[in-house]
Amino acid sequence: MKCSVRFVALVVGLVAALSASAQIYQWKDKDGKTHFSDMPPPNQPGVRVQTLERASPPATVAEPEPDETETEGEGGAEPGATPAPASVQEKSQTGQRDEEFRKRRAAAAEAREKAEKDAADTAQRRQDCLRARGQYAALNSGQRIFLPTEGGDRRVLSDGERAAEIARTEELIEAFCGKD
Questions:
Q1: 94-120 pLDDT tens trace
Q2: CA–CA–CA angle 99, 102, 105 (5° rounding)
Q3: Do 126 and 180 touch, CB atoms closer than 8 A?
Q4: Residue 177 burial (CB < 10 Å; 0-12/13-18/19+)?
Q5: Among positive and negative, which fits the CA dihedral 57, 62, 67, 70?
Q6: Are the C-beta atoms of residues 41 and 35 closer than 8 Å to each other?
Q7: pLDDT class for 131, splitting at 50, 70, 90?
Q8: Calpha distance 75→49 (Å, rounded)
């Protein structure tokens, strides 16, 4: 506990020393403990002095100079032409990136819509295929098939009508189911 209190005091002392002075003294005592201080120890040989220099912020921020390879690669920059200011170039590049992003997003949305439409068409074709196969099975089962009349009655499908309906259903199966 006593050691951690000393360590905290040492850190606080160092921070205070950094803000107040630009020199820190470091030495080891006879027990081998390292000490830091903003004042030199009395009569201690082997004291090491560390001078801290604070970095001052630059007076002005210099804009980076354009690289020759950058200006040559940018579509049509003439040699000797004055490059546009960095902010205009950045805005232009940002605008181009935004436009490319919008195009990619529109293409992705279009592809997604196409995939959804294709999936819906495939599902509809499956349903139509199942319906046509069911109708074909009913026509070939030998059961009587009744058709409604305009008067609300019903009539039996004749053998000729049944053959024509079987041929039409086979065409539907080929169209909806393919050659399964």
A1: 888 899 999 999 999 999 999 999 999
A2: 150
A3: no
A4: middle
A5: positive
A6: yes
A7: very high
A8: 57
